Amino acid sequence: MAVLIDILSSVFIGGFIILMAFGILDSTNKFLYSHNDDLIVQESLTSINTILEYDIDKMGFGVPENQNVVLLADSAHIKFLADLDRNWHPDTIEYYVGSVSELSNTPNPADCFLYRKVNGSPTDGLAIGVVTDFRFSYLTQDGEGVDTSNPLNLKTIKMIRTTMRIESPAVYGDETQPEKSEYRTAFWQETNLASRNLRR
Asked: What's the predicted TM-score (pTM) here?
């Protein structure tokens, strides 16, 4: 009888140790996936930021002074002129946010493409990244907000504030509707993006 109790005790303790090992393994995997997702999100944010800053820094370059630089400006869409290739013919650069329905196959319900278009090409724009929040706001030389619903106010835009949030498309595990806090997130806000060519 004592032998049977010893065997059952050993099986119970062994099973408990195995369950603990699986728990530790799952926690380690979750940490590694989260760390990897953090890295991917940060790299994506940096990549988008680099392209955007380059274009906005060139905004108005090579554009005649009597010509409007900003052609369209709202919270999720901007179109402006800049001579990107220095051929003395201003290019039309456009940024806009796509629809969340385009990425309905990803678990994250808020992610959408950020598009960039130069001189109307490609027709639907080139997706330069995936964002969950992307907003433009426009400021005067004195840092006051510009009402872009009136096209006459576009000439007063001297600075652009960009807010961007990127989240991982999925979380570790098999949750069909994970909590918002489970997604790995990177946030960036540039408060004084401006081209020297806009200050003339």
From this structure: 0.80
Give the count of beta carbons closer than 10 Å to the beta carbon of residue 81: 22
Q: Where are the beta strands (DSSP E) in 51-155?
A: 70-74, 77-82, 91-97, 112-118, 121-131, 133-139
CA–CA distance, 45 with 189 (Å, rounded to integer): 11
Q: What is the DSSP letter of 120?
A: T
Q: Would you say 195 and 56 are in contact if contact means Cβ atoms under 8 Å apart?
A: yes
pLDDT tens sequence across 4-54 = 676 767 666 766 677 676 666 666 656 555 557 778 888 888 999 999 999
How many distinct structural domains can be found in the chain?
Answer: 1
Residue-number span of the structural domain to which 173 is assigned: 2-199
The answer to whether the CB of 180 falls within 8 A of the CB of 165 is: no
